[in-house]
Design goal:
Helix content: 25-40%
CATH topology of the largest domain: Rossmann fold
Order of helices and strands: HEEEHEHEEEHEHEEHHEHHHEEEEEE
Strand content: 15-25%
Strand order of the largest sheet: 4-1-5-9-10-11
Distance between the termini: 40 Å
Number of strands: 17
Length: 404
């Protein structure tokens, strides 16, 4: 079966359908009621963030006062819901802690008495970032208003405040409410200092993520008298705007030629049909995978030819067993110039390469002379009377494999 242009068309349509139906999705978690004491703003922060993101076209899952089991389950389901083209935001307000350079988000049921407890009773920030990565081609952002004063500091060896600096995964933004090792203020009003300014900036149309974060950071710095300065990590490779209307949920179709080629290649690279690779080379003669495609095409074609030769060689051998060739013995065939050549063993022990006749099994010959442009044969012809006759014949070829 030859997929050829229909494969490419199907891939284009599939990519177009993916782009057209990309969605905005967010997981928002606010934890306030801890055994060590209640935080004033995270529940309000989470609820207001849910409201604002919904207004911006996001489908939002909200979780309040999440215990570890619910926290883990929400992250797992969030990751499973994301498709490659979706835009994804994860927001957390509550307590966070760091240990040995690893950041942890604290569930409300966590009882932390030493560093080791964080591994089993808190959520590694890396897990949340891994879930965001499911949106491979979309906008990915983690917002952490979790740099509040650490109530577990005295229980941990390094006693660090705030969160640690970590490298964001490729294509992902991470926004911290405060600089590494610094704490965020819980705020005097309904929201924490960082989230209050972020909510305001999100209402401004036409701001890309970079401009939006800078606007938020300046406002927080001014409001707190320089005590708190939000900190960004990572780089997004996606053009994105939060404000409704500037980046609608259904994205305009703008197919990346390199992505189309990659999808085409991914769809055929395991194929055993040489026509697939022939079509790829027709569309992308200088493509990224042209060398691999040629190798794969030749490998499959040679394997098919090998199988045909094995079948034909067996048939020829069985046919010749019925005749006496005297001192000439047929020992096999090899492919050359899209035809089969017979290997004949002569009485002197040499093996000569001779082209088979159009009717394979009828004409054979002994090589007398090989020159640059011709082979002189002593041909054996099997006539209609059932006898073999010898005659001299010259075959002219543009390319000659010398006898060996």
């Amino acid at each position: 079966m030859r997929p050829t242009r229909s494969v490419a068309l199907a891939l284009l349509l599939a990519l177009a359908a993916q782009a057209a139906h990309a969605e905005r999705k967010a997981l928002v978690i606010g934890n306030a009621h801890y055994a060590e004491g209640r935080l004033a703003n995270p529940i309000n922060d989470a609820e207001d963030m849910q409201t604002r993101l919904k207004a911006l076209g996001f489908a939002v899952v909200l979780l309040e006062d999440a215990v570890l089991e619910d926290f883990d389950r929400a992250l797992e389901r969030f990751g499973q819901s994301l498709r490659a083209e979706d835009d994804a935001v994860f927001y957390f307000a509550g307590h966070g802690a760091q240990s040995n350079g690893v950041n942890y988000l604290i569930p409300t049921d966590a009882k932390i008495s030493e560093d080791a407890d964080l591994k089993y009773k808190a959520v590694n920030l890396g897990l949340a970032l891994d879930k965001l990565a499911h949106a491979q081609n979309g906008f990915k952002l983690a917002i952490l208003d979790a740099c509040r004063n650490n109530p577990y500091a005295r229980s941990l060896r390094d006693g660090s405040r705030g969160l640690a600096r970590v490298d964001a995964p490729s294509g992902t933004l991470v926004w911290y409410a405060a600089q590494p090792g610094k704490v965020a203020e819980d705020g005097l009003g309904r929201n924490g200092a960082f989230t209050a300014q972020l909510l305001d900036a999100l209402s401004q149309p036409g701001l890309d993520p970079d401009a939006l974060f800078k606007r938020t950071a300046r406002a927080v710095y001014q409001q707190t008298g320089g005590r708190q300065f939000p900190y960004p990590e990572g780089v997004s490779l996606v053009d994105f705007h939060f404000a409704a209307g500037t980046n609608p949920t259904a994205k305009p179709l703008a197919l990346d030629p390199a992505a189309v080629e990659l999808s085409f290649w991914d769809s055929i690279k395991a194929s055993d049909n040489p026509a697939d690779f022939e079509e790829y080379l027709k569309q992308y003669p200088q493509g990224r995978f042209a060398g691999l495609a040629r190798n794969r095409f030749n490998s499959i074609a040679n394997e098919e030819l090998k199988q045909k030769i094995e079948i034909e060689t067996t048939r020829i051998k069985e046919d010749l067993e019925n005749y006496d060739l005297g001192s000439i013995k047929f020992v096999g065939t090899i492919p050359y110039n899209n035809t089969l050549w017979g290997l004949l063993k002569i009485s002197d022990g040499t093996i000569n390469r001779v082209r088979m006749g159009n009717y394979i099994g009828r004409n054979f010959g002994k090589i007398i002379l090989v020159k640059e442009d011709k082979i002189e044969l002593q041909e054996l012809v099997f006539d209609d009377s059932g006898k073999w006759h010898s005659r001299k014949k010259i075959m002219y070829l543009s390319v000659v494999n010398h006898a060996r």
